[in-house]
Every structure is written in C-alpha cells, then in structure tokens.
Design a protein that fits this description.
This protein is of the alpha+beta class and 217 residues long. Helix content is 24%, strand content 28%.
Amino acid sequence: MSAFPGSPRLLRGGLVLVDPTTGAVQRIIALQYNPDSMSRSLQIKGVSGESGDHLEALRLKGPPVETIKVEVEIDATDAMEANDGTTNDAGLHPQLAALETIVHPSSAALLSANAQASAGSLEIAPGLAPLPLFVFGPKRIVPVRITEMSITEEAFDAHLNPMRAKVSLGLRVLTVDDLGFDAKGGNLFMTYLQGKEQLATRAASGSFASLGINGIP
C-alpha cells in the first residue's frame, strides 16, 4: 500500500551494537514494527543518611537506575509475499538469532576461555561484549544492558520455522557510574541527559493559580 503524498517518514526503533572502546558500529538491528507502548522506571539514588539528617535529604549521589521494557513483534508475512529466499528457508530464525546472540558470549570467546583453562590459566577475564545502544528516535539514544529477553514463537511453517514472534526486552540504561566519563557509552549517556535537560526547559511552567493557592506560605 502506497503512502499518502507528503506523509512523514516513519522512523523505526532498534538496537545498534558498537565496539565499547572505539565506538565503531558493528551491527544495526531495526525493529520491524515499533512497539505500541514502552514502560520506563527510574530508581532514585539518594544519599542514605540517618533518619532525620537534614544535610542528606536532598542529595543525589548519581543518576537514577532507569529500566525500559518493550514488546517487539516480528512477522514474516511480507517477506513471504515477496518470495524472500532466506525467509522461505529459515522463517524468522535469523531475526531472532540476531537478538539472542547479543546476550550470548561468542562461541570463539567460549572456546578461547576453555583452551586457556585447559592450559592451566587460573584467572580468565571475560571478553568485552559489544555495547548495545537503544535507539528510539533522535531524542532517545542510550547505552543499555539487556537484562531480560523472552520470546514467544507462533505460526510455524511446514519445516517448523516460526513465522510470527513476540519478543519482550528488559533494558537497563548504563550511566557514567557504570561506564565512566571517558568511554563512548559514557559520552552517549551524558548527551542523553543533556538532551533531557534541554527538553525540560521547553515544558510550559505552571502557576500558583492552577494549584489553587496564592503562593508558598
């Protein structure tokens, strides 16, 4: 179905995997459909002083812990109608694998760790995984850790390839407390925070009258 002339281009949310050191883009995963809703929660990091300590009551010791939950839907119908060879052969397995491998150590890393252990290494530091960035429009580009992923597969073809799937993603925003100020991810978080501060200045200010009072006693 063709879009109406002059209709705005629909942006897609997605995940971008970057090298945590250099920031080089390794992979872009665009969502087929944007979620209808997104839930976010912020756990405030206050200074935990003794009860009644007036010096600590208003202090914030760092950015809050922000978590994001989204429901992603994937459907192979359009690709099947276009006679896409990959979809005909594997259904949605490739798209699901692209998401799942984000939370798996690579097979090469596992084999390397096993070889080091077999050679007698007493301490094996896990390798750095790519840094995921959650992108949901130009005003929301944040470094995240995927904390939860659940997949519901539906409508299998004759070869038991899934043709529809729902993926629930739990994301934790990584801040400068997690990544540091000098890392690429830390820079991206600061840009995200500064963007929020700029947007806050554009919010209309209320009035005492709207609160039903003349002022603060």
